[in-house]
Design brief:
Layout lengths: L25 H16 L4 E3 L9 E6 L7 E13 L3 E6 L7 E8 L1 E7 L5 E7 H14 L4 H4 L2 E4 L5
């Protein structure tokens, strides 16, 4: 089931720090599937639980988007352990801020830890756009939006 994406830079849900997930339940697995369908329907590369109205530390991410090795999976209680000193500038948008785009400087490499839906802890090192996706989604879980970090913002009409 596709869900409604919460909108607005001043939305309380989007500006609240999300609570850790304590237990992985069948309901949480179902919620993850609904989030995935919503992200795909909206043509996103990531969606965080607050964006669909729940302040829990979970997001769905699409790594290597458009590539043969594209992968979509949930990250639960993600924690960025290391960031590189090297930074990359890139354009970001957000499903919760339709039409807004901005240049954001982020770490070009990260090491992060998360749990999967089987409650297994995983650690990944990511570079480039994949690292950007994780940083963007973790920001959502911390009540931050890309516009808080952008050094250049513009509104664009983008066809979906």
């Amino acid at each position: 089931m596709s869900m409604t994406v919460v909108q607005g830079a001043d939305n309380t849900i989007l500006r609240t720090v999300s609570m850790p997930v304590k237990t992985i339940t069948p309901e949480l697995r179902s919620f993850a599937l609904d989030m995935t369908k919503t992200m795909e329907h909206e043509n996103g590369v990531g969606i965080a639980a607050p964006q669909v109205g729940r302040n829990i530390r979970m997001a769905i991410v699409k790594l290597n988007p458009g590539e043969k090795n594209e992968i979509i999976f949930p990250i639960i209680n993600p924690e960025i352990l290391e960031i590189s000193e090297e930074l990359d500038d890139g354009e970001e948008g957000c499903l919760s801020l339709r039409g807004m785009w901005g240049k954001v400087r982020r770490a070009s490499r990260i090491l992060f830890r998360y749990k999967n839906l089987r409650n297994q802890e995983q650690t990944l090192e990511l570079h480039g756009f994949n690292a950007r996706i994780i940083q963007h989604e973790v920001d959502h879980l911390d009540g931050k939006l890309f516009i808080d970090r952008a050094y250049e913002l513009e509104e664009k009409k983008k066809s979906r």
